[in-house]
Specification:
Elements lengths: L6 E2 L7 E2 L17 H14 L2 E14 L3 H6 L17 H20 L4 E6 L5 E6 L2 E2 H21 L3 E3 L13 E9 L20 H13 L26 E6 L4 E6 L6 E4 L8 H17 L25 H9 L2 H7 L1 H21 L3 H7 L4
């Protein structure tokens, strides 16, 4: 157990929660392929360069008023969503939902997971909660515990919660935007150039290389941001997903969006869905950024206008199969993670592809082909 993560569960009397690390059998060595270990190794690489990071996860999820046992019996079809109307940024729905969302905010605060903001999102029954930024491993832990807590609270309230990236094809997907800023070991911000130099959108040269590395290598590391077959159904134009690989200033059509001012200046990665494993995604972010710094990549140019309609820009891969192939051929991924972790990530993702392609007949296939072929 990592006793630094020990905390009382506010909604469960006389119960506590602690995260544990995995060790090699009959050894005092951390298990190399465990998610927390993978992230720790990337953090150690960064610290050797005098760098640390601030991270924050911005999570979306759907809530249905159908209880979970009934939802399971219905195979998660035709659920009664918590809201019947689209109420993004509308106060009335926020008030109606607050009987439950307030529980999330209050319990999470008592659970050691401070909430920056919450709001209804565009989808029917969709919510967004942004976690307060903190150090990297702590934020990854909070991200995991937040998802556990929300699902547990939803079950107790007679609701069903999902963090799938695309639970319904006729509604928007759920994202997990990742915000990251660069700091030195003394806690000084390194992301902003301090003067807003023309053409750099305020990025320091170091942060420019870090962001350039993310944009350069995100497709190689895509399966760590989009880990499931379902992840890729979220990548549709004009549905808020960061499919166009570009950097923009407060531009939501770009995969990488520069936001904030001064010490809060940061880059938001809009590619991950709510199904992401934060340890993998944060590790991939650091690995890509460090590759950019090590290569001395120049500060990327800033894209103006609608990146979704710019055919000259590269786009996120369209399937887990394609991402697995890309990862498997990536020298950057192997160099960053080492052979054992690289092979573990590659083989695990490939097994997921095989399980889907050879292990199921979808409803779509039945409707399209059953009496027609």
């Amino acid at each position: 157990p990592d006793l630094a993560t020990l905390r009382r569960i506010p909604w469960e009397p006389n119960a506590a929660f602690v995260l544990c690390d995995s060790y090699e059998m009959d050894s005092d060595q951390l298990l190399e392929v465990a998610p927390r270990t993978i992230l720790r190794r990337q953090l150690a690489r960064a610290e050797e360069k005098g760098l640390r990071f601030g991270f924050a996860s911005e999570l979306e999820f759907y809530l249905a008023s159908t209880p979970s046992a009934q939802a399971f019996a219905q195979r998660y079809r035709d659920l009664d969503m918590l809201s019947a109307h689209r109420n993004d940024y509308q106060m009335s729905q926020a008030g109606r939902d607050d009987w439950f969302i307030a529980q999330i905010r209050n319990h999470m605060s008592d659970f050691g997971i401070p909430i920056e903001a919450s709001k209804p999102e565009w989808g029917l029954g969709q919510q967004e909660v942004t976690l307060d930024f903190t150090s990297t491993l702590e934020m990854a832990d909070r991200h995991v515990l937040f998802k556990y807590g929300v699902k547990d609270l939803a079950h107790r309230a007679g609701l069903t919660c999902t963090f799938m990236a695309k639970p319904k094809i006729d509604d928007v997907g759920s994202s997990c935007h990742l915000h990251v800023s660069l700091w030195d070991l003394e806690g000084n911000p390194l992301s902003h150039d301090g003067g807003g130099t023309a053409g750099t959108a305020g990025m320091s040269a170091l942060f420019g290389s870090f962001v350039a590395g993310q944009a350069e290598h995100v497709l190689d590391l895509g399966l760590l941001f989009a880990p499931t077959v379902n992840s890729y159904k979220r990548y549709l134009p004009d549905q808020f997903a960061g499919t166009a690989i570009a950097v923009g200033v407060d531009n939501r059509s770009c995969a990488f969006r520069l936001v904030g001012h001064g010490p809060s200046f940061r880059v938001e990665n809009r590619i991950p869905g709510a199904d992401v494993n934060p340890y993998y995604a944060y590790a991939a972010t650091i690995a890509a950024g460090l590759a950019g710094i090590e290569a001395g990549l120049p500060t990327p140019s800033v894209h103006d206008g609608n990146a979704w309609t710019d055919s000259a820009l590269p786009s996120m891969t369209t399937s887990l199969h394609a991402s697995v192939d890309r990862f498997g051929a990536s020298e950057v991924a192997r160099a960053a993670f080492g052979d054992a972790v690289f092979e573990h990530l590659f083989l695990s993702a490939r097994a997921e592809v095989v399980a889907f392609e050879s292990g199921c007949v979808t409803d779509w296939e039945l409707v399209r082909y059953y009496e027609r072929v």
